[in-house]
Write a structure and sequence with these properties.
By secondary structure, this protein is α/β, with parallel strands linked by helices.
Length: about 140
Protein backbone atom coordinates (compact mmCIF):
# COMPACT_ATOMS: atom_id res chain seq x y z
CA UNK A 1 0.00 0.00 0.00
CA UNK A 2 1.26 3.47 -0.86
CA UNK A 3 2.02 5.93 1.90
CA UNK A 4 0.40 9.28 1.22
CA UNK A 5 1.77 12.38 2.96
CA UNK A 6 -0.55 15.34 3.53
CA UNK A 7 0.95 18.43 5.11
CA UNK A 8 -1.22 20.90 6.95
CA UNK A 9 -1.31 23.34 9.83
CA UNK A 10 -4.95 22.52 10.65
CA UNK A 11 -5.12 25.48 13.04
CA UNK A 12 -8.92 25.39 12.70
CA UNK A 13 -9.97 22.07 11.23
CA UNK A 14 -12.80 22.31 8.69
CA UNK A 15 -14.58 20.39 5.94
CA UNK A 16 -11.94 21.37 3.35
CA UNK A 17 -9.35 19.46 5.39
CA UNK A 18 -11.68 16.45 5.64
CA UNK A 19 -12.32 16.43 1.88
CA UNK A 20 -8.58 16.49 1.15
CA UNK A 21 -7.89 13.73 3.69
CA UNK A 22 -10.67 11.58 2.22
CA UNK A 23 -9.15 11.93 -1.28
CA UNK A 24 -5.71 11.08 0.11
CA UNK A 25 -7.09 8.03 1.92
CA UNK A 26 -8.51 6.73 -1.37
CA UNK A 27 -4.91 6.58 -2.64
CA UNK A 28 -3.27 4.80 0.32
CA UNK A 29 -2.27 5.00 3.97
CA UNK A 30 -2.31 8.64 5.11
CA UNK A 31 0.39 10.32 7.17
CA UNK A 32 -0.28 13.93 8.13
CA UNK A 33 2.78 16.18 8.42
CA UNK A 34 1.40 18.63 10.99
CA UNK A 35 3.07 22.02 11.28
CA UNK A 36 4.44 22.69 14.76
CA UNK A 37 3.30 25.64 16.88
CA UNK A 38 6.75 27.25 16.62
CA UNK A 39 6.70 27.09 12.82
CA UNK A 40 3.21 28.62 12.70
CA UNK A 41 4.35 31.45 14.98
CA UNK A 42 7.44 32.00 12.84
CA UNK A 43 5.58 32.07 9.50
CA UNK A 44 2.08 33.32 10.36
CA UNK A 45 2.94 35.51 13.35
CA UNK A 46 0.61 33.94 15.94
CA UNK A 47 0.20 30.85 18.08
CA UNK A 48 -2.60 28.65 16.72
CA UNK A 49 -5.94 28.52 18.52
CA UNK A 50 -5.33 24.82 19.13
CA UNK A 51 -1.89 23.62 20.24
CA UNK A 52 0.09 21.05 18.27
CA UNK A 53 -0.95 18.31 20.73
CA UNK A 54 -4.62 19.29 20.51
CA UNK A 55 -4.53 19.39 16.71
CA UNK A 56 -2.67 16.07 16.64
CA UNK A 57 -5.25 14.42 18.91
CA UNK A 58 -8.12 15.61 16.71
CA UNK A 59 -6.39 14.48 13.52
CA UNK A 60 -5.55 11.07 14.98
CA UNK A 61 -9.26 10.53 15.61
CA UNK A 62 -10.16 11.04 11.93
CA UNK A 63 -10.73 7.73 10.18
CA UNK A 64 -8.85 8.79 7.04
CA UNK A 65 -5.55 9.27 8.91
CA UNK A 66 -3.14 6.54 9.99
CA UNK A 67 -0.31 8.63 11.45
CA UNK A 68 0.52 12.24 12.42
CA UNK A 69 4.10 13.54 12.52
CA UNK A 70 5.48 17.01 13.37
CA UNK A 71 6.67 19.07 10.44
CA UNK A 72 8.24 22.37 9.48
CA UNK A 73 6.26 25.04 7.63
CA UNK A 74 7.69 24.12 4.23
CA UNK A 75 8.63 20.56 3.32
CA UNK A 76 11.73 19.65 1.39
CA UNK A 77 12.80 16.43 -0.31
CA UNK A 78 14.76 15.22 2.75
CA UNK A 79 11.72 15.56 5.02
CA UNK A 80 9.53 13.88 2.40
CA UNK A 81 11.89 10.91 1.98
CA UNK A 82 12.42 10.55 5.76
CA UNK A 83 8.64 10.37 6.23
CA UNK A 84 8.57 7.17 4.18
CA UNK A 85 5.92 8.59 1.86
CA UNK A 86 5.45 7.71 -1.77
CA UNK A 87 3.54 10.86 -2.69
CA UNK A 88 2.68 14.26 -1.21
CA UNK A 89 -0.91 15.43 -1.55
CA UNK A 90 -1.56 19.16 -1.26
CA UNK A 91 -4.06 21.83 -2.17
CA UNK A 92 -3.38 24.05 -5.17
CA UNK A 93 -1.61 26.57 -2.90
CA UNK A 94 1.39 24.24 -2.55
CA UNK A 95 4.75 25.93 -1.89
CA UNK A 96 6.75 22.87 -0.80
CA UNK A 97 10.10 22.09 -2.42
CA UNK A 98 9.11 18.64 -3.60
CA UNK A 99 9.73 17.43 -7.18
CA UNK A 100 6.55 17.12 -9.25
CA UNK A 101 7.00 13.36 -9.64
CA UNK A 102 6.24 13.00 -5.89
CA UNK A 103 3.40 15.53 -5.85
CA UNK A 104 -0.35 15.33 -6.46
CA UNK A 105 -2.29 18.60 -6.29
CA UNK A 106 -6.01 18.87 -5.59
CA UNK A 107 -8.12 22.00 -5.99
CA UNK A 108 -8.85 23.63 -2.63
CA UNK A 109 -12.41 23.62 -1.32
CA UNK A 110 -13.79 26.95 -2.45
CA UNK A 111 -14.91 29.46 0.17
CA UNK A 112 -13.31 27.86 3.22
CA UNK A 113 -9.99 28.17 5.04
CA UNK A 114 -8.83 28.61 8.62
CA UNK A 115 -8.29 32.30 7.82
CA UNK A 116 -11.90 32.67 6.66
CA UNK A 117 -13.19 30.98 9.82
CA UNK A 118 -10.96 33.21 11.95
CA UNK A 119 -12.40 36.33 10.24
CA UNK A 120 -15.96 35.07 10.78
CA UNK A 121 -15.29 34.58 14.50
CA UNK A 122 -13.75 38.04 14.83
CA UNK A 123 -16.77 39.58 13.09
CA UNK A 124 -19.17 37.80 15.44
CA UNK A 125 -17.17 38.86 18.51
CA UNK A 126 -17.13 42.45 17.24
CA UNK A 127 -20.89 42.40 16.64
CA UNK A 128 -21.54 41.02 20.13
CA UNK A 129 -19.33 43.70 21.68
CA UNK A 130 -21.19 46.40 19.74
CA UNK A 131 -24.56 45.05 20.94
CA UNK A 132 -23.29 45.01 24.56
CA UNK A 133 -22.17 48.66 24.21
CA UNK A 134 -25.57 49.66 22.79
CA UNK A 135 -27.39 47.88 25.61
CA UNK A 136 -25.16 49.37 28.34
Amino acid sequence: MKIILVDMSATLIHHGHIRLLKKANNLGSVTVALTTDEEILKHKGYFPELSFQERKEILESIKYIDRVIPSPWKLDLDFFKNSGADILIHGDDNKNDIPEKYLKIFKRTEGISSSIIRKRVMKIVSQKNNIKEINS
